[in-house]
């Protein structure tokens, strides 16, 4: 339990640093399109202003308005919730370690990093292949339907990876592959027409960065949680 | 010997289950709960970690 907390807090803080280094400026830029402060398809001169908007936002927060919560408060909440999220992921990973140990598997830092990789695939990569990380100002299908698909995909992918990693027969391999493929064969809830306000270029780099940051943090989380588990088990 | 193993397994079941339940509850609250306050507070994190947001 303590090991999961330590690993989760450390990974969460790393996630927060990477978030503000690579992701936050694009959320703010997307919101400028969402609120209509910026409009896609403007004159070239206006576009030149857009190009610098992300950097300006990141460096100075110069476009914040007085009636919104302060930048400090908003960012502090982001740090807090990011840490909470990775503590939750750390606890789920550690619960997984405990179950694997019951079956005689020895969990080390290296094995933990592999679990982290699998966690990234189950919680971010596979859901992201149907529901790309959403930039503010982009459009998406019904929220409840998306949340159901998100959870189903996480469970199917996690189960599929576990079967592939720990299964010992051809049947478990086949079942694992079917579970991995199933959510994508069924397909995520999508829109009939696209009407997002934000430019596709901004959404694309945002999604890439979200996945890149997620991969880095998940591997670190798994490595740390595995190391903590190994130490606790050895003591 | 068998009895000892069973007791050990049972005593570990509760903490494993407890940790999984707490982890899932926190995940639901920070990532998926639709209360306006939670949504606004967790907004940037939800977008940045691939949760379906609004």
From TrEMBL, chain A:
InterPro entries, per the entry: CbtA_put
**Looking at the record, which segments are called Disordered?**
49-69
Query: Which protein, by its recorded name, is this?
Result: CbtA family protein
**Which keywords does the record carry?**
Membrane, Transmembrane, Transmembrane helix
Q: Where is the composition biased (Basic and acidic residues)?
A: 49-68
Q: Look up keyword Transmembrane helix and say if it applies.
A: yes
Membrane spanning residue stretches: 76-100, 112-132, 148-166, 173-191, 203-225
Record bears the keyword ATP-binding: no
TrEMBL record, chain B:
InterPro entries registered for this protein in UniProt: CbtB_put
Entry's transmembrane regions: 12-30
Record keywords, A-Z: Membrane, Transmembrane, Transmembrane helix
UniProt-listed Pfam families: CbtB (PF09489)
Protein name in UniProt: CbtB-domain containing protein
* Species per Swiss-Prot/TrEMBL record: Pararhodobacter zhoushanensis
